[in-house]
Amino acid sequence: MHAVYEEIARSLKKEDILPHHHEGEVDSGWLLLDYNDVIIHIFSLAEREYYQFDRLWQKANTLVRIQ
Question: How far is CA 49 from CA 20, 33, 53, in A?
Answer without folding.
Answer: 28, 21, 7
